[in-house]
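User: Hey, quick favor. My workstation is busy. Could you predict this chain's structure for me?
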Amino acid sequence: MDKYIFELSMKVRDYECDLQGIVNNANYQHYLEHTRHEFLSSIGVSFAELHTQGIDPVVARINIAFKTPLRSGDEFVSKLYLKKEGIKYLFYQDIFRLPDLKISIKSIVETVCVVNGRLGDSELFDKLFASYVSE
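Assistant: No problem, here it is.
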């Protein structure tokens, strides 16, 4: 069974590459964030609207293992699955080059919620993510 609950296809743009002709390491974080935001959107959640409700999901830690570099024009798919650990939501996010599905990066993005200015559980996310959280 496929552990991933969401995937998003993208394409590397020229300006995302460094002098070596590969995607600059910082741009992978943009890909990961865009994937998380699109996942939220796919389940009916607006990241901007969350803030107006006093709910601010924030990244606490990111661990990225770089495997195979992406280059300008490469198409890729960014996939994620989700776990909960205490008050943290852990997004396991992997990027695969297309069409060969060679792993480009493996990452774990730890997020927490600041609700009305205080770090804590988000009842909203607990409800929204209940059917998506892996054991």
